[in-house]
Amino acid sequence: MLKPETDVLVSQLDRVLNEHVGRGIVGASLALVRPGEEVLPLAAGCANRATGAPLTPDHLFKTASTKKTWTAVAVLALVSEGRIGLDQTIEGWFPHLPRADEIRVRHLLSHRSGLPEYEAFMPRGAADDWTPERIVDFALANGTPIAPGEAFIYSNPGYVLAGEIVASERGEVLSQWLRRAVFEPAGMAETWSGGDEAFPRARLARQYVFDSGRSDAPPEDSSDWFPLSGIGAAGDLVTTPRDLARGVHALFTGQVLEGDALAMLRGPLLPASFPGTNITHCGHGVLISRFGELTIEGHLGQLRGHVTMAGHHAASGITVVLSQNSCSSDLEAFGAAGIHPVFAEVFRLAGA
After folding, report:
1. Residue 79 is part of which domain span?
2. pLDDT tens digit string along 196-207?
3. Cα→Cα distances 224→62, 84, 131, 134, 221, Å
4. What is the rounded CA–CA span in Å between residue 53 and residue 115?
């Protein structure tokens, strides 16, 4: 149940969301979990500019790279079972991949595989028929790999390969294992791996991208720009902020992974940075954001108009998920970067 002061908190959070929308965001959806309480969901703004439909807590979002945390959970479950090792090289699974004998499992999870990123090269409106092999081939054809282990280079292909390792070892695709072993036990009934699972598309909030070079132009509907199969294990998660908050809270309070495996998810921490964010470090499937004295562990997801911040504050036990259905073509402009201070403000209002 919720604490007696929740009415005051709801009023404060509602103000924060509406101010965020008032600054130019199309719509924003929030879910908050405090220890011993139910999930508190709120929403403001618009889900569909064409119809004027309001955004509600029931709308789904493509929460993109928040999927990486769950893919890492699946890999680390294998590690904790002794079936694979973090320092194991990946040539046994991918014998034809360049430098596979140098890339370790931990490199895939910490963005140090050296595999190039490809997302910017994906053709707008590409058909939703991508396979993991095609994604990796596309990345290698459009970028230049570097030596594994040397530097942080954000790499979706690394997580695509991590998902394939899970499938190989489990004998079932990653989405099936996550649903059976993680999502269902955590009560995440509104969560899907949209690259290969059917989900209620009518519940998706529309996606919008603002052109940062044309401040007076309306946002463009980007809902069909990027296929979920084209990101797979690296980012095809479709869920509500309410459901994701429930799962993230379960994860960081030790209900999904055992102690040692959860520690492997969280670290060791290595330096990481992204334009327009407060992210400072990464673990194995976890990104660290720092806002002054406030340190949040979780993940950021962004996919052509849907932006999500999911995080947990260990000292207070508070979990927050904040999603919006618009962003900017410039990652450092308000349309993308503006979610970070709002995310931090929610934690502070909640008592972190």
Report:
1. 70-174
2. 999 999 999 999
3. 12, 37, 18, 20, 8
4. 41
The alpha carbon torsion through 334, 191, 152, 326 (nearest 10 deg) reads -20
d(CA 337, CA 286): 19
Instruction: Take residue 3 and report the two structure tokens written for it.
Output: 């604490």
> Do the domain assignments include residue 52?
yes
> In this structure, is residue 240 part of a structural domain?
yes
The answer on 329 and 196 residing in a single domain is yes
Angle between helical axes of 259-266 and 241-252 (0-180°, round to 10): 110
Q: Rounded to whole angstroms, how far apart are CA atoms 214 and 338? A: 18
Question: Are 155 and 301 members of one domain?
Answer: no
Two tokens, residue 310: 């999911």
Distance CA 352, CA 340 (A): 15
Q: How far is CA 7 from CA 28, 115, 237, in A?
A: 20, 48, 31
CATH number at residue 262: 3.40.710.10
* pLDDT of 2 above 60: no
Is residue 22 located within the same domain as residue 86?
no
Residue length of the chain: 352
Point out the domain boundary residue: 119, 143, 174: 174
Q: 96 and 200 share a domain?
A: no
What's the sign of the alpha-carbon dihedral 148, 232, 189, 176? negative
pTM score above 0.90: yes
CA 197, 199, 201, 203 torsion-angle sign:
negative
Per-residue pLDDT tens over the stretch 305-352: 999 999 999 999 999 999 999 999 887 777 778 999 999 999 999 999
Distance between CA atoms of residues 212 and 1, nearest Å:
43
